[in-house]
């Protein structure tokens, strides 16, 4: 374990933001980031045709069984030793956004999971703004907020996780890693700095933890440990990358940046977290940009290299939302050309959910095949993509379509047809319903 200075004015459970305003701000920042990153384009051809298929693994008829939480064992010094790995599932899950808790959304989400083929849920343990949502006295966490307890019948995240596990629902703790607008206020020396020695901020005025700083690794590991201790089955690392938005030329990563490449830092970090989580019997996954499997240039900017990540994670979740690929408009996500995926130019990618998902995943198939050919016998992460469960009305008219049951099922079918078995759905407003899965 580790110790930090205690002059942090810990505030448990405080809501320091106005919910509607902050929610809108999150969405605005999210769209800005994706516009900057995905607006690249390249050549033309037809996509595949969506043909519905019965899939036995998609059945929701089986009665779920409670998932046990193994008790960690410790050595004489109190250090956690290797714990039996918790039962695995073929996860078909949803992301729950705690900033949109209207009408007891978490209870409604649980009902949807229990009445459909869904069996997993992703919950924020460390949010985009830096808040930690697990109530703890650990002074390493400058601010915690019990958002679940404030907006539902659950008194704490621990209580919610215990209830989910009693229902046989697989629990995934999302930990936003290097994007952090909170911790840097208390420890500015741990932030990415500019050439003047001040905290560097991206285009959305958000600060980041320096991935080269190993103290930040330990801080994030401690959050993951706390999540493991309250029973989460899996840790999902998000924003596990270098920043891409803002005046990147002003960044000064320090002398450590001369010793390791971005690829090395990110792959070593996820390996470090995974080694810690193995001690608790918890699996480790990471969200990555879908385009890193397509473009070496973009992968190099953010430090996400498929060949290095595959052996160091249990799951990889590429974010391959059709709306986030460049389109041929001159508006949001537009570059006037479109985006080439698997040799096919998509000029209106959001209108072709099956084709975009299927062809995106072909790049991951090839990465896995290449890795196994070069590293026979080495276990690789399973691919579990994040799919689009929202209508991208922010795109130009004609460049988006409403996403309902047909579009959701088309994406899921594309995952199966590409040879993968697991998937997660992303909605910022928790508008999941059983009708989406009929």
What is the count of distinct domains? Answer: 1
User: Do you know the CATH architecture?
Assistant: Alpha-Beta Barrel
Structural class: alpha/beta
| String of helices and strands | EHEHEEHHEHEHEEHEHHEEEHEEHE
Strand residues, percent = 5-15%
Helix segment tally: 11
| Major beta-sheet overview | 9 strands, parallel
Instruction: Give the radius of gyration.
Output: 21 Å
What distance lies between the first and last C-alpha atoms, to the nearest angstrom? 47 Å
Q: Mean pLDDT score, rounded?
A: 83
Shape label? globular
**CATH fold label:** TIM Barrel
Low-confidence stretches: 1-24, 29-64
State the helical fraction: 25-40%
β-strand number: 15
Oligomeric assembly: single chain
Neighbour order of strands in the largest sheet: 13-10-9-7-5-3-2-15-14
Structure description:
By secondary structure, the chain is α/β, with parallel strands linked by helices. It has one domain (11-437): Alpha-Beta Barrel (TIM Barrel). Helix content is 29%, strand content 13%. It has eleven helices and 15 strands. It has helices spanning 19-38, 105-114, 147-150, 157-166, 183-186, 214-229, 262-279, 296-302, 306-309, 353-374, 405-417, and strands at residues 11-12, 92-96, 120-126, 143-144, 170-176, 193-194, 234-238, 251-252, 283-289, 315-319, 339-341, 344-346, 382-383, 386-388, 423-426. The strands form four sheets. A nine-stranded parallel β-sheet has the order 13-10-9-7-5-3-2-15-14. A two-stranded parallel ribbon has the order 1-4. α6 (214-229) runs parallel beside α7 (262-279). The protein is globular and about 60 Å long.
